[in-house]
Specification:
This protein is an alpha+beta fold. It is built from 9 helices and 11 strands.
């Protein structure tokens, strides 16, 4: 995505099909999963949660909280992914190491109403309106109908459904200085600009909040779970976030996951925002340890390879600092 305009530069999905031999293709491959399928985004949602809480004045990146590894919410004991007691940590550490307890505490600090309002503002409660056919969405319940436990899990990206366009556009708010750029495919129709490009972009979070979140996402790459996404020459100048979410089947979560990575570079003046999502990756050894399928191991290296090629093709250079 072009961060400033919301224009989709490219997308691709696999497995796909040969249009010259479609009669022999599995019909399920005709569906475009990028816009026509939903998934639970996992921890990339923490960017939205923490951005909203910072913008509401409920938390700061350096605020210290206690994370014992779990939190009781709505009668459920909800754990961090590693089930470890992390003790006293900052919210920057929460994002770096993708901790669920910190995301839930940020949501609680800003309150349910604020959290839901930011879900709306980031474009995650309705269709993005992308100009292709058959966009699929499953909006969350109204704010009043969401249970405490659903607010808690939504804060770290489980129990909430989005499509990849929605999630990319939401993270792009940070890259675009706090403004929501409506995602679109078509730039011009004849000599006329797409009307979307003529509309003012709405301010979702302040530029100051967007800068703070950008700096936190830089720390994810430099010191946290995004280390496998580092692009040569941009190790100190890219922002990102990993995501891993368990896939539900018949109302119960399984050990299969959606793994993802989203990021942008250069961090302060980004030329593109990009997301990579994998459904049911099977990293060697994951049969014994399902966390090996996490986004930082599976999706982040793919993001890195594509980003490295974009940097070369577009001749992108790091910002002078």
């Amino acid at each position: 995505m072009d961060p400033a305009t919301g224009g989709i530069i490219a997308w691709a999905d696999y497995p796909s099909y040969n249009a010259n031999d479609f009669i022999h293709t599995d019909p399920s491959h005709f569906l475009d999963p990028i816009s026509s399928s939903v998934y639970e985004p996992g921890s990339v949602m923490k960017v939205v949660t923490l951005s909203g809480a910072i913008n509401a004045g409920a938390i700061t990146p350096d605020m210290v909280i206690n994370d014992p590894g779990f939190l009781y919410v709505g009668g459920y004991r909800i754990y961090d992914w590693d089930r470890r007691n992390h003790g006293s940590i900052t919210y920057t550490y929460v994002l770096e190491h993708s901790l669920n307890v910190g995301a839930m505490k940020a949501m609680q600090a800003e309150g349910h109403a604020n959290f839901y309002n930011y879900l709306q503002a980031f474009g995650l409660t309705k269709a993005s309106g992308i100009d292709v056919a058959a966009e699929d969405t499953i909006p969350p319940p109204s704010a009043a109908k969401m249970a405490d436990s659903q607010y808690a899990t939504s804060a770290f990206g489980q129990g909430i459904d989005v499509n990849m366009i929605q999630m990319l556009a939401a993270i792009n708010v940070v890259a675009n200085g706090g403004k929501y750029a409506p995602p679109h495919i078509v730039e011009r129709i004849g000599n006329n600009l797409n009307p979307v490009l003529l509309q003012p972009q709405r301010q979702v979070i302040s530029p100051a909040t967007a800068l703070k979140m950008t700096q936190m996402m830089e720390q994810v790459v430099q010191h946290g779970s995004g280390w496998m996404s580092r692009v040569r020459g941009f190790e100190l100048d890219q922002a990102g976030k990993t995501g891993t979410s368990q896939i539900p089947v018949n109302g119960k979560y399984t050990l299969d996951v959606w793994a993802s990575y989203v990021g942008f570079l250069p961090a302060l003046h980004p030329k593109f925002t990009m997301i990579v999502v994998m459904r049911k990756p099977h990293y060697p050894g994951s049969q014994q340890d399902w966390t090996l399928n996490d986004g930082y191991i599976t999706a982040a290296p793919v993001w890195q390879k594509i980003a490295q090629q974009i940097v070369v093709d577009w001749r992108i250079t790091p910002d002078a600092r």
